[in-house]
Amino acid sequence: MRALALTFLTWLEIGRVKREAFGGLDKLEGFHVKIDKQMKNDVVILRLSGDLTGGPDAVLFHDMIKQIIADGNKKVLADLGKVMIVNSTGLGILIAALTSMKNAGGILKLLNVSKRVESLLMVTKLILIFDVFENENEALASFS
């Protein structure tokens, strides 16, 4: 158990070092997922790539959402087009992000979910709580 805790802390430290190397929270690279942040009008777009499976990536994603809220942004579009795997912990990460945004008076919407992820959202009925889009322009327009 102690080795597992040390490994987890090591992963967190790697994420922190990479975050500092990228000069803040515009680009994060965790253990399994990479997150690039950009603004279009008043919408924050988070482009995720890799696997959304939890561990230190959950902390990195949550840190980014907290920073977005602290910066006064209320609209987030998570582009999952390059996410290969989402497991139950990954779904929990997305639900926590949506909850944090809603509690702050904002919204999180999903873009470019794969057929596999869409199927997972349907089976878990989470498709009912997330707004999901295939087209970025339509997703951006939906925030108006």
Q: How would you portray this structure in words?
A:
The protein is of the alpha/beta class. The protein has one domain: Transcription Regulator spoIIAA, CATH 3.30.750.24. 46% of the residues lie in helices and 28% in strands. It is built from five helices and six strands. It has helices spanning 2-21, 56-70, 88-103, 115-123, 136-141; strands at residues 27-29, 33-40, 43-52, 75-86, 107-111, 132-133. The protein has a six-stranded mixed sheet with strand order 1-2-3-4-5-6, with helices on both faces. A hairpin with a 3-residue loop joins strand 1 and strand 2. Helix 1 crosses helix 2 and helix 2 (56-70) runs parallel beside helix 3. The chain is globular and about 30 Å long. The model is unreliable at 1-25 (pLDDT under 50).
List keywords for this structure.
globular; disordered N terminus; 5 helices; six-stranded mixed sheet; 144 residues; alpha/beta; Transcription Regulator spoIIAA; 6 strands
